[in-house]
Amino acid sequence: MSSPMKVRAQVKGDYADIKILMSHPMETGQRKDPKTNQPYPAHFIQQFTVEVGGKLVVQSETGTAISTNPVFGFKVKGAKAGDKVVVKWQDNKGESRTDEATVS
Amino acid sequence: MDILRRTVLKGASASGVLAAALGAGLLKPTQALALDWNKAAFEAKDTPAAMKAVGAASAAESKDLKLTAPDIAENGAVVPVDVSSGIANTISIAVFVDKNPYPLAAAFNFSNGAMADVAVRLKMGQTSIVRAVAKTSDGKFYTASKEVKVTAGGCGG
């Protein structure tokens, strides 16, 4: 099982600032094991979605050039304190994870 | 398709039905998110091919698309990049690193109040042009770019 995401959402003026830290190795498939000289198999998040207050706000596709333990930041207009934020990712091995936070 | 997906997600967050369905093999993991990962674009080996694969072959330079990235990245494994579009009706943003083995890093679609503004951290194998492409709701593409010098790569062993 993967570790939980850290999701923080704060109202700043007329928008909510959403920061997401995912816990994932984001293995590119380019790195080689120095002992065997074989590449480590690619293992990376391919898709994620962000919902605020039950509405889809961000839908993303990602490749191997996203850093290990990815961090993303978004701004959502009209989000209010108390709105639920739901983030879901899925990687190239079919593993997935969903975590929630509340806009403050 | 979208309605089905929403139902699945709502059901999952309410009761963990999705986990049960996955466990029972009723739902293939690849169906859990109803997005299609653009394999052709993410596996394109140069930026023009990747841009073509996302439909952005003819993107115009725009000053209203702001790409913020460091001039020099000491650690190519974590390069913070911000892209913000002041172009009206921007519905999606994609980020490319020209000299990476696969230039397309990520693409984001915005809806329901999400501003066309995204912060990401990229891996860069070497000094390269980082490029953002914005798409508007009328199907036009705009681009902005910046060179980031990398003193230690993020893709090697």
Percent of residues in beta strands of chain A:
over 45%
User: Which runs of chain B of at least 5 residues are low in confidence (pLDDT < 50)?
Assistant: 11-32
CATH evolutionary superfamily of the largest domain in chain B:
SoxY domain
Query: What is the N-to-C order of secondary-structure elements of chain A (H for helix, E for strand)?
Result: EEEEEEE
Structural class of chain B: alpha+beta
List the total number of helices of chain A: 0
Mean pLDDT of chain B: 83
**What's the alpha carbon Rg of chain A, rounded to whole Å?**
16 Å
List unreliable stretches of 5+ residues of chain A: none
* Outline of chain B: globular
Can you count the beta strands of chain A? 7
CATH architecture designation of the largest domain in chain B: Sandwich
Features:
heterodimer; A: 104 residues; mainly beta; Immunoglobulin-like; four-stranded antiparallel beta sheet; three-stranded antiparallel beta sheet; 0% helix; B: 157 residues; alpha+beta; 2 domains; six-stranded mixed beta sheet; 9 strands; globular
Describe the structure.
The complex is a heterodimer of chains A (104) and B (157). Chain A is elongated, with a radius of gyration of 16 Å. The mean pLDDT of chain A is 95. By secondary structure, chain A is mostly beta strands. In chain A, a hairpin with a 4-residue loop joins strand 6 and strand 7. Chain A starts with 5 loop residues before the first strand and ends with a strand. Chain A has a single domain, classed as Immunoglobulin-like (Sandwich), CATH 2.60.40. Chain B has two domains: 30 residues, no CATH class; 110 residues, Immunoglobulin-like (Sandwich). Helix content of chain B is 21%, strand content 37%. Chain B has four helices and nine strands, in the order ααααβββββββββ. In chain B, the strands form two sheets. In chain B, strands 1, 3, 5, 6, 8 and 9 form a six-stranded mixed β-sheet that branches. The radius of gyration of chain B is 18 Å and the shape is globular. Chains A and B meet through strand 3, strand 4, strand 5, strand 6 and strand 7 of A and helix 1, strand 6 and strand 7 of B.
